[in-house]
Amino acid sequence: MLKTLSGRFLILTVIFVMLAEVLIFVPSIARFRLDYLTDRMERAQIASLALLGTGDMIDDELEVELLENAGVLNVVLRRDSLRQLVLSSDLPGPVTRTVDLRDPSTFVLIRDALTRFVTPTPEIIRVIAEPARGGGTQIEAAIDTGDLHMAMVDYGITILWLSLVISVLTSAFLFLAVRRLMVTPIKALVRQMRRYAEAPEDARRVIEPRSSVRELREAEMTLRDLETQLTQSLRQKERLAQLGSAVAKVSHDLRNILTTATLLGDRLEMVDDPTVKRIAPKIVKSLTRAVSLTEGTLAFGRAEEAPPALQMVSADAFFQELCEGEQLAVDPELVRIVHDAPPGLSIRMDPDQLHRVVGNLIRNARQAMETAAQPGTITVSAGEDDTGWHIRVTDTGPGLPPKAQENLFQAFQGNVRKGGTGLGLAIAQELVRGHGGTLELEKTGPEGTVFCLVLPRELDAA
């Protein structure tokens, strides 16, 4: 029960109602004591006036009866300046305290009432009050508090039972109201969420706001928007997955066709016809770009790259082989590719995957410089610190345009050169993340571009 919203609300309601009853009980018991003593003083005044009106005609037995009926032990009446003992009897004990009812403060009334309520031992008190309807200037009476304590206890028990009944009824009504207005709509909302979760791609299961409670309706509207967006996103992802599967199949077959066409283009270059010699290189270059496009699409379409096979690799030998291979694809008079690694530096990496990453960065820089017909240098540098190894690919090219920087690592969006796919950097970043590292654009501008690759030293970071 404590784990349900309605159960907790019921328990809290009972607690708060009982607390409210306690706060009401304290002044109520003080008022009850005041009324009790006031009533005794009024009875004592009536008995004293009756005695004064008859003179000496009342015998001792009738006087005792008057005192018992008034609930007091003696009565002293002050009229003008005369203080007169009107009714009296033998006191069972000494008077222990005086209670003044003429102008009591609320604090004093509550304090005295609580003291009397928790003190069962009876005592004799002297009560002072103002006579009603001009029956004198002051009336005093001695009262035994034994009956007062019992009356206060009975009154307290009555209030307790009444409080319990009120709290139970109030809690029951609130419990039913909360279940009707809050718990039931929330359960219906949860049921709808579970129903939607079974088939989130089904738009018919999107919630339709129906609650008349403003807060619940806002929750339903927010959930509707969320479910609508999720359904649309799932549909889009499904379409993209289907499209990707189709593109992968087409790219695979197209790559084979383009490879054959490239071989035929190479043979066209052997023909002595001037027109063929002029056109054939352009055809071969176009076919080569098409083959690169299909291979990049197939590479990106893989579900995931294989986990890196990490090993310590000599940085100098690795970069030397990489740079020499890339230099063969470009005129050294236009672009020079150099490396700079401290002697003896070893980097923990997967050499095949890092070859793809750094090679892609070098090719991007080389192609940008070739397109701009801007001679320059591409430098691959490496170093290390306490946290790991860092590799930088720096070029003196024209820099990246702002549009390319916005979606640099987004597949099919971060292409810089005409005819590019934007897959290279996306694949490179995925491979670097597999090493537990980061690949970022450090700076770019008219003076050149710098990409920084950081590999962590700690193995558990990967």
UniProtKB/TrEMBL annotation:
One Pfam family recorded for the sequence: HATPase_c
Keyword ATP-binding found: yes
PROSITE patterns: HIS_KIN
EC class (word): transferase
Phylogenetic classification of the source organism: Bacteria, Pseudomonadati, Pseudomonadota, Alphaproteobacteria, Rhodobacterales
InterPro entries attached to this UniProt entry: BphY/WalK/GraS-like, HATPase_C_sf, HATPase_dom, His_kinase_dom, HisK_dim/P_dom, HisK_dim/P_sf, Sig_transdc_His_kin-like_C
GO molecular function: ATP binding; phosphorelay response regulator activity; phosphorelay sensor kinase activity; protein kinase activator activity
Name used for this protein in its record: histidine kinase
EC number: 2.7.13.3
Biological process terms in GO annotation: osmosensory signaling via phosphorelay pathway
Keywords for this protein: ATP-binding, Coiled coil, Kinase, Membrane, Nucleotide-binding, Phosphoprotein, Transferase, Transmembrane, Transmembrane helix, Two-component regulatory system
Coiled coil: 216-243
Provenance organism: Jannaschia pohangensis
Reaction(s) catalysed by this chain's protein: ATP + protein L-histidine = ADP + protein N-phospho-L-histidine
Residue ranges constituting the Histidine kinase domain according to the UniProt record: 249-459
Transmembrane segments: 9-30, 155-178
Matching SMART domains: HATPase_c, HisKA
